[in-house]
TrEMBL record:
<protein>
    <submittedName>
        <fullName>TIGR01459 family HAD-type hydrolase</fullName>
    </submittedName>
</protein>
<dbReference type="InterPro" id="IPR006356">
    <property type="entry name" value="HAD-SF_hydro_IIA_hyp3"/>
</dbReference>
<keyword id="KW-0378">Hydrolase</keyword>
<dbReference type="Pfam" id="PF13344">
    <property type="entry name" value="Hydrolase_6"/>
</dbReference>
<dbReference type="InterPro" id="IPR006357">
    <property type="entry name" value="HAD-SF_hydro_IIA"/>
</dbReference>
<dbReference type="GO" id="GO:0016787">
    <property type="term" value="F:hydrolase activity"/>
</dbReference>
<dbReference type="Pfam" id="PF13242">
    <property type="entry name" value="Hydrolase_like"/>
</dbReference>
């Protein structure tokens, strides 16, 4: 069983760097989580380096804009690495003609790249940042389209590996759910975000640009997704703090508290990649 902590400062002396997830830890897409933001500000004031590492399909500038819009303090981080940032590197080596799946707001992912967004019948590959209408659509709505892609063996570039994410009180589907559906019918996906190594390699490069060479043993990954944040951290050789009050909460919360027996069962189900610590939320001090 991972060790339970109540506050980040309980273990802060063991780490110099936090690689912190965003959705589900810092905000829910609509509302910021003040205690988490205060914890990251306090960590930086204590000399820690904070790099946000998020599966957002937007380049970092888009995340910064969202932070400003919903009220996430700019003092809470030193740098931001997104799945969109590292996916751009994949797309630079992709076929030039892409069919785009995703909301209009995420098209900035291809700004400045030598690619052309085309109709489905002209496409040489697919770029997905999420459903077109993520408030209403599910992967089932894309079954016929994905079958057509598979019939032509089009590679599927997934800019957000998350399966689902919280938006306010709702759970919505992300690009990762469509990527998984494509893989289930034999399609080939290309993914650089969490839990895959490119995003961690880039985050560590940013850390070392900020503070010099730093041992992985002095880095702590923080996140609420077992298949992305925790799996990615473990595979990258990092300790991890699991935030229980996130996308998996329905698996072990009883009312407003964690049922630790159910949480133990949850961790047993995910035993191939376990966090070092767990906490209900991210906080610092009393």
């Amino acid at each position: 069983m991972p060790r339970k902590i109540d506050r980040l400062d309980e273990i802060a002396s063991a780490f110099d760097v936090l690689l912190c997830d965003v959705w589900g830890v810092v905000h829910n897409g609509i509302n910021p989580f003040p205690q988490a933001i205060e914890a990251l500000v306090a960590a930086r004031r204590a000399g820690k380096t904070v790099v946000m590492i998020t599966n957002s399909p937007r380049p970092a500038e888009g995340v910064i804009g969202q932070f400003a819009a919903i009220g996430v303090d700019a003092e809470a981080w030193d740098d931001i690495v997104t799945s969109g940032d590292v996916t751009r590197s994949l797309v630079e080596n992709a076929p030039r003609k892409l069919f785009y799946i995703g909301p209009e707001r995420d098209r900035a992912l291809v700004d400045g790249l030598d690619v052309e967004l085309v109709d489905e019948d002209q496409a040489e590959a697919v770029l997905c940042t999420g459903p077109f209408h993520d408030e209403t659509e599910t992967p089932d709505d894309y079954a016929a389209m994905l079958s057509r892609f598979k019939a032509r063996d089009l590679p599927f570039y997934c800019a957000n590996p998350d399966q689902v994410v919280e938006r306010g009180e709702r759970i919505i589907y992300c690009a990762g759910a469509l990527g998984s559906a494509y893989e289930a019918i034999g399609g080939v996906t290309r993914i650089a975000g969490k839990p895959h190594r490119p995003i961690y390699d880039e985050a560590i490069r940013r850390v070392e640009a900020l503070r010099g060479e730093t041992a992985k043993a002095r880095m702590l990954a923080v996140g609420d997704g077992m298949g992305t944040d925790i799996r990615g951290a473990v595979d990258a050789g990092l300790d991890a703090l699991f935030i229980a009050r996130g996308i998996h909460a329905a698996d072990y919360y009883q009312g407003n508290r964690v049922d630790e027996d159910r949480l133990a069962t949850f961790f047993e189900h995910h035993r191939s990649a376990l966090p070092t610590y767990w906490s209900e939320g991210l906080s610092w001090g009393k």
